[in-house]
Design a protein that fits this description.
10-stranded mixed β-sheet
Amino acid sequence: MPVVLAGGAGTRFWPASRRAVPKPFVPLVGRRTLIGDTLERLRLLAPAPRTTVVSAEALGAATRRALRAYPGTRLLLEPVARNTAAAIAWAAAEALGRGDSGVIGVFPADHYIPDARAFARAVRVGAAAAADGERVVLLGIEPARPDTGYGYLRLTRGARGAVVPVARFVEKPDAARARRFVADGGYLWNAGMVLARPERILAETKRLSPEVWDALGPTLERIAGGARVARAALARAYRAVRPLSFDYAVLERSRRVFALRGRFAWSDLGSWDALGTHLPVLEGNQVHAAAPPVLLDAQHNVVWSSTDKTVALLGVRDLLVIQTTDALLVCANHRAQDVRKVVDELARRGRDDLL
């Protein structure tokens, strides 16, 4: 059963990504939104009525619009944002409450995976390994380059088989360490994709994460048992949860975590410069624009525009030029990770109209 996490803010993709319509709901690469691409891939694994999307209550309207093309998809709207540990535990409890104890696959809504069939094949292998109910299997990605923007999974040395134990989680490394990881061959990119039976997810959360379970656990146990829980009661429990990622709250503390090598192209599209590598190249620049840009003596720029206004670049290089109907971002390519600082500054100035 696929579970799609679609509650992220996507502040590094301002001005295209906003509070009301964040990154997963924006057609960044092609005509379809990222959540649309995700749901389309997952049709290879399960029909829409067996798919659950977890989003935020504040994103209810945007999420429902995205799901119109996938009738029957279940929708869980979190009362407040509490990161992925709470979201995944709630989805697992809901599955058990419906009598569905098959393997859950948790997938972020905003990743770019061009080869859907290779992705589906890897998920099936990982799901088969997780079906015993003892293992939590991560779908890692075999590194294509020494990338400093991703966390890594260190695999247990000497382990054999389709899935192998994860020895440890490694935070985003510097360039030298990333090169060592790739040369070593025993590291995978942590893609945030999880395969496990729902009862195992709840058991590991209960055992390892009191920050989540003490507040939310009694409510989740009622849901898993098939009881109907009032929205107000769920909201009270949710508010008491410490916001933690599933990685930190559960996976990094568990000895049941295994990983499968995903050998397909993948990106979490973490910033505008990362997106640029997946856009069409035009005269030495990476471009996604409704109106063809004018590019004169311009190289290695990322141009993204959702309007019919023409973008003209003359004698510049290594820039991000991002245009929407009400905002224009011009940024040095190497400062792509700092776009969120613009969002912070707009918030400080009270420019809610641009957030």
